[in-house]
């Protein structure tokens, strides 16, 4: 289960990111570097150093631009040896990303609908679908584009698995172990339950990195992943 847990280094200091990695030790071998860390903590260099240390790195950059720009950006990330990279799940974006990642070990993930968004938010964004309907559409487009998987709420994981089949990854943020605060997340689930519904990897940030004992928190989540504990 260790490799299925991705810890989000959502911090703005390289020193704090390295402290978290040190505290977690061998309990975690996969880290997500998103906007805050990438721009505020020299996350690109940090990611390369983590890769050199034998860790896996997920650059959560949610790329979206013209095809040529996306293709060159994905190619640059692929050269680092990173394990995963996110792009927005628009068909042309995913197609360009798939082309750039071909022949490398980089798994491109299409971000379907953010876990901070519910049906009302999707409607406000101008879509004539509910969140689940939009996720289904994006999952179909990701499959057709030939990328490695998608990022989606655990609430859509079971549906998405039926669309993607069994070869593509389903990475789920919005994971909250029993007894933790939801924060700004709206579509959340406990670790074991998300895996049971088809998720392959779970992204957990604040419940680990803000815990008094990050390693104990990570080990607790790994235990929930094994036991299938549900949110109360």
TrEMBL record:
<dbReference type="GO" id="GO:0004590">
    <property type="term" value="F:orotidine-5'-phosphate decarboxylase activity"/>
</dbReference>
<feature type="binding site">
    <location>
        <position position="205"/>
    </location>
    <ligand>
        <name>substrate</name>
    </ligand>
</feature>
<dbReference type="InterPro" id="IPR047596">
    <property type="entry name" value="OMPdecase_bac"/>
</dbReference>
<comment type="function">
    <text>Catalyzes the decarboxylation of orotidine 5'-monophosphate (OMP) to uridine 5'-monophosphate (UMP).</text>
</comment>
<feature type="binding site">
    <location>
        <position position="176"/>
    </location>
    <ligand>
        <name>substrate</name>
    </ligand>
</feature>
<feature type="active site" description="Proton donor">
    <location>
        <position position="62"/>
    </location>
</feature>
<feature type="binding site">
    <location>
        <position position="10"/>
    </location>
    <ligand>
        <name>substrate</name>
    </ligand>
</feature>
<dbReference type="InterPro" id="IPR018089">
    <property type="entry name" value="OMPdecase_AS"/>
</dbReference>
<feature type="binding site">
    <location>
        <begin position="60"/>
        <end position="69"/>
    </location>
    <ligand>
        <name>substrate</name>
    </ligand>
</feature>
<dbReference type="InterPro" id="IPR014732">
    <property type="entry name" value="OMPdecase"/>
</dbReference>
<keyword id="KW-0665">Pyrimidine biosynthesis</keyword>
<feature type="binding site">
    <location>
        <position position="32"/>
    </location>
    <ligand>
        <name>substrate</name>
    </ligand>
</feature>
<protein>
    <recommendedName>
        <fullName>Orotidine 5'-phosphate decarboxylase</fullName>
        <ecNumber>4.1.1.23</ecNumber>
    </recommendedName>
</protein>
<dbReference type="InterPro" id="IPR001754">
    <property type="entry name" value="OMPdeCOase_dom"/>
</dbReference>
<dbReference type="Pfam" id="PF00215">
    <property type="entry name" value="OMPdecase"/>
</dbReference>
<dbReference type="InterPro" id="IPR011060">
    <property type="entry name" value="RibuloseP-bd_barrel"/>
</dbReference>
<feature type="binding site">
    <location>
        <position position="115"/>
    </location>
    <ligand>
        <name>substrate</name>
    </ligand>
</feature>
<feature type="binding site">
    <location>
        <position position="206"/>
    </location>
    <ligand>
        <name>substrate</name>
    </ligand>
</feature>
<feature type="domain" description="Orotidine 5'-phosphate decarboxylase">
    <location>
        <begin position="4"/>
        <end position="221"/>
    </location>
</feature>
<comment type="similarity">
    <text>Belongs to the OMP decarboxylase family. Type 1 subfamily.</text>
</comment>
<keyword id="KW-0210">Decarboxylase</keyword>
<feature type="binding site">
    <location>
        <position position="185"/>
    </location>
    <ligand>
        <name>substrate</name>
    </ligand>
</feature>
<comment type="subunit">
    <text>Homodimer.</text>
</comment>
<dbReference type="InterPro" id="IPR013785">
    <property type="entry name" value="Aldolase_TIM"/>
</dbReference>
<comment type="pathway">
    <text>Pyrimidine metabolism; UMP biosynthesis via de novo pathway; UMP from orotate: step 2/2.</text>
</comment>
<keyword id="KW-0456">Lyase</keyword>
